[in-house]
Fold this sequence. Notes:
Elements: H1 3-23, H2 27-32, H3 42-50, H4 68-81, H5 83-102, H6 106-118, E1 123-126, E2 142-146, E3 149-160, E4 167-173, E5 184-190, E6 196-200, E7 211-222, E8 226-227, H7 233-269, E9 271-272, E10 275-276, H8 281-310, H9 315-345, H10 350-357, H11 368-380
Parallel strand pairs: 1-4
Antiparallel strand pairs: 2-3, 3-7, 4-5, 5-8, 6-7, 9-10
The site of flavin-adenine dinucleotide has 18 residues, from β1 and β3.
Amino acid sequence: MSELAASRESFRAEVARFTAVEITPNATAWDQTDPDGSYPMQLFTRLGELGWLGVGFNESLGGSGGGPVDRCILFEELAYGSAGAALGLYVHTALAAGALANIADRGLGERFVPGMLAGTTTGAWAYAEPDSGADVTQVRLAARRDGDSFVLNGSKMYITNATFADVILVVVRTSGEPGKLGGLSVLAVDGNSEGLTRSSMHKLGMRPSELAELHFENCVVPADRLVGELDKGFRQCLAVLSQGRVFAGALALGLGRAALDTTIAHVGTREQFGGPLAAKQVVRATIADMTTRLRTVRHLVYSAAEKLETGEDYDTDASIAKLVASETATWVSERCLHLHGAQGFMLESPAQRFYRDCKINEWGEGANELQREMIFEAVSRGYRP
Ligand SMILES: Cc1cc2nc3c(=O)[nH]c(=O)nc-3n(C[C@H](O)[C@H](O)[C@H](O)COP(=O)(O)OP(=O)(O)OC[C@H]3O[C@@H](n4cnc5c(N)ncnc54)[C@H](O)[C@@H]3O)c2cc1C
């Protein structure tokens, strides 16, 4: 094993130990406390102290170095304990801090990113709106220039972490009409800005995370909070979202692995018809299929992460990884619940939690239908598996 591979395995073991002690034992309680969520805020400070929020970020911004593969390891292992808890950390680091570190000018990046990587400043990323879901071109939230500021009017919906986030990266329309990507800019908005109201939303899964609806009414944001170029900021952020697909794939892999391990434990001990369920050939075949599909996901996610790390063209591989990882997590979670029978249907069982948590991965980071469109376009340009 190379020195790099050995250090990565040791990082994986360290995160897995942390998850086993500080996440997995709390996952059911975090899930059931409140359908609005009640995010375990200590995770920001603990991961900040450990330097893990900074994995994949440059040291000059307070990062810990490492690259996309290390960040996949982190999200995979955290999601193994609680996908909902991992989701809040993923949005904070990969999307919010990622856009500030890579797209914002140096001054704005230096203002926020070190605190975000230390876990003392929290972040959110907001593009979804009541009329703008998979189709981002429909963003309507208006930002009108007024001297040294922008004045925001409109709404955002389903925004992870936004109930508490100190800084929210908000995709706004600075010019043009809905239907076009041009004219969309990104602003780093203070969570406690005057004119911004945030209300939490009830949800089916990923319950440790918090989701907010945001209303902006004449909310004044200083012009120096522009992330990237005026009218082009969202287009510039597409690279951050494309990278996000690889990390979202790792998160789905961690969730799927947890469902598999829970299933293996259950079918090994639950006895029906004179022996454990694991003695039945059809059950053994299901476990084999779950394992095989997750193994495929592992290859797809980590090969996309390696391409990203070495600067190769990775976009299509990121789409394929996110598509297969999310649909596999859904399939594995459904089989997990199925093999648990009624026991898995009870709220104290992790099986029903995996089943509720997995679905968002199919819509997040670009709905899977859009991934299929992008893969088809790449095939038309000559991409081959
Ligand atoms: C738990 C959770 C966390 C979230 N966190 C965030 C966040 O932090 N920031 C943020 O901005 N948003 C967030 N979202 C919202 C997320 O961005 C949207 O769910 C996503 O963009 C899809 O939009 P939509 O849900 O409105 O679905 P819609 O766009 O209304 O799509 C509905 C259905 O149609 C399908 N569909 C869409 N387009 C096509 C097409 N062209 N062809 C065929 N089928 C299609 C979709 O796959 C879906 O099945 C979150 C959502 C949830 C549930």
